[in-house]
């Protein structure tokens, strides 16, 4: 079996094994072993890709093409470049960390881990697909389990949050499907057969009118999952009601499908549409960057603070993609990775704090640094990374985004760039506000004096997420070089 198909097959085998398990202990052990193997596979893929990249000039490597439906030219067509390899590694780390953070899930543990792995299967399949139909299929497989994960294992108004999330993402999927079919029926503009192959469509001169019509459908269809303003409202409610591991995968991995889909499909296949519509979506994404940051200041619930922070940070990803140059696109991919690790770490820490204090309201917390120092210190580090402190992944990503955006010399691009840069100051305000209220000062509640320290499985999950944040910040060049080499073919249509 090829190296990429294993990323779809292995989670399915783990799911089958989980179905026949009995009890919490066996279920979590199988989920842990399966996730560790997936991480090992992702690391192996990284080294294999770096080796293959040095001798292979193809856009995608480790490709495999199997006909699924010959009548419509639908193929199981897979392959990876440096961008998808990096996102697969991100996914494997967060899935394993999520298993450790969910170690004490007592309510239907078998079903919980099965749903989690179904989501992971869809994500892996999405990142390796280079056929539009196959990509859309895996996209839906990744999105659908969120309804169950929130509706069954969530808290608060979980039914409302799950339904709102599902309806908004299904509406976006409808737009996306129309856009994909629009590309498909224009894929023979140069006289060839109709095809869903991304590489084949990229060689076709799709008519400008078709690009102008279908680009916004594809962009919105994917960008709703990436929290595009004003379609972001499902995200904070979904995060607040979701269990910890689901919030980690939701924000850390699932929302990355939005930016990746915009880049891989909308930008690559419809470059003239991207140039035509970029000004409009730049305004929406820049608004989301600022709105998310200011909304986070007004919140007192830790999950809502992190959720609106995600709206702001993911707005930067879309903003950078719309700048249509190499530096900004490099920053967009780095920001996707950085945000994935940071937001998953935040949600893991918030879950650990909530299980100990039974509250996420920062006004009811205080002095936690004295009683749970390890959790508190990691929260401060995650906060510093989020506000873009040098030495962490957030700084590397945001510098590339803002430098790339400012390379556009016209007044419009530079004004929206300056507005978006100002979000860094706002981010510092809400991060330092939370740290000051929740962690510093006297202990507000005497019962907090006996809070349990972080367990081994919580510590393991947290460190899995912290190490890449520091690693990317300290030594970003190897990752940046891998991404830049993969960007070159995609830039040809917009330069």
UniProtKB/TrEMBL annotation:
Q: Where does it reside? A: Endomembrane system; Membrane
Keywords of this entry: Membrane, Transmembrane, Transmembrane helix
Quick one: a GO biological-process term for this protein? electron transport coupled proton transport
Q: Which residues form the NADH:quinone oxidoreductase/Mrp antiporter transmembrane domain?
A: 130-416
Q: Name one GO cellular component term.
A: endomembrane system
Give TM segment ranges: 6-24, 31-50, 78-100, 112-130, 136-153, 165-185, 213-232, 253-271, 277-297, 304-324, 336-355, 367-392, 412-435, 456-479
Primary site of residence:
membrane
List the coiled-coil residues: none
Q: Which GO terms describe its molecular function?
A: NADH dehydrogenase (ubiquinone) activity; NADH dehydrogenase activity; ubiquinone binding
- According to its record, how does it sit in the membrane? Multi-pass membrane protein
Spell out the InterPro entries in the cross-references.
NADH_Q_OxRdtase_chainM/4, NADH_UbQ_OxRdtase, ND/Mrp_TM
Instruction: Write out the similarity annotation.
Output: Belongs to the complex I subunit 4 family.
Under the heading NCBIfam families, the entry gives: NDH_I_M (TIGR01972)
Q: This protein is called what?
A: NADH-quinone oxidoreductase subunit M
Question: Which source organism?
Answer: Salegentibacter flavus
């Amino acid at each position: 079996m090829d190296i990429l198909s294993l990323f779809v097959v292995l989670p399915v085998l783990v799911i089958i094994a989980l179905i026949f398990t009995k009890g919490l202990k066996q279920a979590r052990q199988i989920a842990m072993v399966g996730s560790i193997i997936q991480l090992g596979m992702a690391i192996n893929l990284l080294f294999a890709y770096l080796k293959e990249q040095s001798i292979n000039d193809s856009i995608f490597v480790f490709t495999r093409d199997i006909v699924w439906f010959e009548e419509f030219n639908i193929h199981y067509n897979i392959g990876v470049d440096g961008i998808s390899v990096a996102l697969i590694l991100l996914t494997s780390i967060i899935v394993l960390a999520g298993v450790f953070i969910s170690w004490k899930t007592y309510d239907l543990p078998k079903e919980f881990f099965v749903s989690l792995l179904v989501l992971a299967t869809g994500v892996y399949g999405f990142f390796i697909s280079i056929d539009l139909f196959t990509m859309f299929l895996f996209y839906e497989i990744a999105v659908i389990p969120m309804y169950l994960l929130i509706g069954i294992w969530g808290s608060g108004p979980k039914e409302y949050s799950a339904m709102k999330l599902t309806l908004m993402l299904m509406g976006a999927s409808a737009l996306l499907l129309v856009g994909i079919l629009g590309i498909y029926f224009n894929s023979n503009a140069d006289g060839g057969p109709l095809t869903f192959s991304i590489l084949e469509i990229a060689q076709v001169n799709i008519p400008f009118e078709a690009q102008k019509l279908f680009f916004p459908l594809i962009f919105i269809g994917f960008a709703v999952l990436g929290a595009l303003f004003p379609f972001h409202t499902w995200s904070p409610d979904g995060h607040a009601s979701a269990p910890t591991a689901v919030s980690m995968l939701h924000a850390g991995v699932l929302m990355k499908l939005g930016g990746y889909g915009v880049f891989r499909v909308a930008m690559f296949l419809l470059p003239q549409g991207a140039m035509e519509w970029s000004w409009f979506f730049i305004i929406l994404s820049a608004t989301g960057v600022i709105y998310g940051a200011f909304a986070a200041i007004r919140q007192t619930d830790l999950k809502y603070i992190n959720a609106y922070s995600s709206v702001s940070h993911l707005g930067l990803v879309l903003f950078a993609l719309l700048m249509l140059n190499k530096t900004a696109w490099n920053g967009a991919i780095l920001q996707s990775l950085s945000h994935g690790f940071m937001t998953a770490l935040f949600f893991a820490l918030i879950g650990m704090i909530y299980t100990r204090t039974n509250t996420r309201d920062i006004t009811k917390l205080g002095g936690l640094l004295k009683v749970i120092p390890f959790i508190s210190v990691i929260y401060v580090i995650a906060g510093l990374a989020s506000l873009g402190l040098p030495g962490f992944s957030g700084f590397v990503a945001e510098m590339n985004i803002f430098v790339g955006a400012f390379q556009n010399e016209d007044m419009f691009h530079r004004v929206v760039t300056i507005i978006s840069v100002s979000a860094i100051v706002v981010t510092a305000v809400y991060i330092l506000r939370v740290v000051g209220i929740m962690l510093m000062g006297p202990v507000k509640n005497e019962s907090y004096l006996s809070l349990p320290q972080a367990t081994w499985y919580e510590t393991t999950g947290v460190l899995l997420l912290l190490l890449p944040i520091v690693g990317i910040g300290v030594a970003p060049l190897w990752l940046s070089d891998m991404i830049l080499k993969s960007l070159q073919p995609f830039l040809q249509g917009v330069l």
